[in-house]
Design a protein that fits this description.
Helix content is about 35%, strand content about 20%. By secondary structure, it is an alpha/beta fold. Helix 4 packs parallel to helix 5. The C terminus is likely disordered. It comes from Streptomyces avermitilis. It holds the Pfam family GFO_IDH_MocA. This is Gfo/Idh/MocA-like oxidoreductase N-terminal domain-containing protein.
Amino acid sequence: MRIGLIGAGRIGTFHATTLSRHRDVGSLIITDVAPARAHELADRLGETAAPGVDEIFTWGVDAVIITAATAAHAELIGRAARSGLPVFCEKPIAVDLPGTLSALSEVDAAGTILQMGFQRRFDVGYTNAREAVRSGRLGRLHTVRAMTADQSPPRPTTSRSPAASTATAWSTTSTSCAG
């Protein structure tokens, strides 16, 4: 399988590294708004850098990974859909509801697949917090504050241990606010 990756920043580097190790991925075509960054990543992984987004859609890829800036997501999703390509896109789909609805409409019209990256839902810290709330052992909650700190730089891993995940802290209060 040939994958086009748009965005060679921190999360793009994580996905590119993971995909370059996957047995079903024959090659990656990597592009970024900063061409030098795409070339550096592609060279390090033994993959191919594309000069721009146009090449992702004309060089015969089988799927697209979007890890570009949020403001570009909806347009890139639409372009991939119009090209008949399945897409994995990091959240969010767009910066606003009209952009989101437009992108989803293009995916529906093209009959392609869109998968969103939404990793926090499965983060160990969040799943532990959810279980603590559901079990009732924390009492009735009025406020939950959560903070996460990703590893920097991210490191692909096959481990699902808490140490391999992100650091997550959460706190609750059972007092209500008056005012």
